[in-house]
Every structure is written in structure tokens, then in C-alpha cells.
Backbone:
């Protein structure tokens, strides 16, 4: 039972992340009925139907067929309310103009890494010494 619950919860979260709600799944029968109507009335296939209602032909289709407006509102995936939109405003009060300059390369070295002995007394006698074998 717990496996069934975890699988269904994972599927629900996946659908929510794609923006598909439970209401969209419940409206799939209206989608199929309206697609059949377009197939019978206009001879549209599925790709043309999707383009007319969700793609690049949507604006033209909405202008030409105002009588189908109520049917178009009942189709799934028509989310006109975007309650998840957030706006971010940034104010920069103190700006300083910095002149960027390119550092000059004086000479090219073959060895880029070298070890320098520590000069403080804490490193020569203190607790920062490697272990000694006796």
C-alpha cells in the first residue's frame, strides 16, 4: 500500500511540476469532444487543432470563431490566472565607477608554484609541526 501511495504522490508532484493540475485532467473529455467537433466541422487533424487552440494559429482562430469562445474556455491547459508570478525590484543606491585596467605580464615563468618557509616563530616551535618519530 505504501508503494502505491508513494508512486501516486510522485506522479502527482511530476504533473504539478509540468503545470498540469487535476482540473486539467478532468477537462480532457472537453478537449476530445472539441477536437472531434473540429475534425467533423473543419476537417482539422490533431496537430492543426492544437495549433489553433494552443499554438501560433490561436489569435486568428479566436478572432474568426467568437461563437466557440465558451467552448474554448472549458479546454484544459488554458491557465489565464497566473498567481505564481513574482516581481523583483533592485535599487542600487551607491554606485562607483571603477576604471578597469589590464594587468601587465612582466615575464613568463616556467615554474608557477614555489614553497616559502614560514617566517613566524609559531611555525618553527609551536604546535604546527609534523609528527616526529623517535
Residues:
Amino acid at each position: 500500500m505504501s508503494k502505491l501511495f508513494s508512486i501516486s504522490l510522485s506522479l502527482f508532484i511530476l504533473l504539478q511540476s509540468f503545470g498540469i493540475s487535476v482540473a486539467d485532467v478532468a477537462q480532457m473529455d472537453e478537449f476530445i469532444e472539441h477536437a472531434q467537433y473540429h475534425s467533423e466541422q473543419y476537417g482539422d487533424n490533431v496537430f492543426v487543432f492544437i495549433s489553433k487552440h494552443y499554438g501560433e494559429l490561436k489569435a486568428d482562430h479566436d478572432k474568426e470563431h467568437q461563437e466557440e469562445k465558451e467552448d474554448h474556455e472549458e479546454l484544459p491547459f488554458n491557465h489565464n490566472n497566473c498567481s505564481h508570478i513574482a516581481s523583483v525590484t533592485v535599487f542600487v543606491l551607491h554606485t562607483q565607477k571603477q576604471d578597469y585596467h589590464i594587468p601587465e605580464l612582466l615575464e613568463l615563468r616556467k615554474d608557477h608554484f614555489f614553497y616559502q618557509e614560514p617566517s613566524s616563530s609559531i611555525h618553527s616551535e609551536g604546535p604546527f609541526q609534523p609528527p616526529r618519530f623517535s
